[in-house]
Amino acid sequence: MLNFLGLYVLGRDTAVYSGSVIDVFARVDVSEEAVRSTLTRMVSRGLLTRQRQGRRVYFGLTSRATEVLDDGARRIWDTGAVNRDWDGTWTLVGYSLPDSRRSDRHDLRSQLTWAGFGLLQNGLWIAPGQRDVIALVEPLGLTDHVTAFTAAAMKPTETAGLIDRAFETAAIREQYKAFLDRWDTPNPLPSAPDDLARRLLLHTDWLQAIRQDPHLPAEHLPKDWPAIRAEQLFRRLDEEIRPEAIRLAEEVLDEIPLVH
């Protein structure tokens, strides 16, 4: 759903009719019940706003959802598959939260993972380069529970050892390989009914591949690291199917101006 909203609602200042969202997701075998449930849940989480026109219900993005989707777009289009500009420093984040705040711990860990942090040891997360920790923890209301600083590794600690301990490089590699296995074919995803469905699945698979990728320094990755080839494929396929996907989206989606 986030991919769909990022592709066809973000930046348009419109609200989209729930029935047309259901039509889009039917193309990728997602049920009407699942779509309605997801939309309702996103309203309750402050990501979508609901408005009516006649008997129809439309959904638009909140400012919070726009921030989330803008961040996702930067991750997909601007960050790149590997880090070629690493300055040798690490951002370190530690936190202490009681068991009674288990949900906050889960949210913080999810944000740290998305931002490229890996768990080095109990309660201590690291990411290559300098990261904006305030932007991660302030929306969660956890600034008083987090300690953050930057540092460089020194002997006897080796960078390769830090990467091996904090990041699941084998699992990251497998995500990219799975993406290539599915999409690097002469006729990718022939089961998709059209390019609207194909593009939605392409972006969903790509986000799944990169969401666990901490953007590790290129000089410490194997020469056959599959991320670059996977990214080139993703960009080429998106360019090929984007025009028809957008045409179909304009044909299917019923939109009205978003009421602020």
TrEMBL record:
Domain Transcriptional repressor PaaX-like N-terminal: residue ranges: 5-64
Domain Transcriptional repressor PaaX-like C-terminal stretches: 168-248
GO terms classed as biological process: DNA-templated transcription
InterPro entries, per database record: PaaX-like_central, PaaX-like_N, PaaX_C, PaaX_trns_reg, WH-like_DNA-bd_sf, WH_DNA-bd_sf
Positions in coiled-coil regions: none
Recorded superkingdom: Bacteria
Domain Transcriptional repressor PaaX-like central Cas2-like residue range list: 84-161
Alphabetized Pfam families for the sequence: PaaX, PaaX_C, PaaX_M
PANTHER family reported for this sequence: PHENYLACETIC ACID REGULATOR-RELATED TRANSCRIPTIONAL REPRESSOR (PTHR30319), TRANSCRIPTIONAL REPRESSOR PAAX (PTHR30319:SF1)
UniProt name for this protein: PaaX family transcriptional regulator
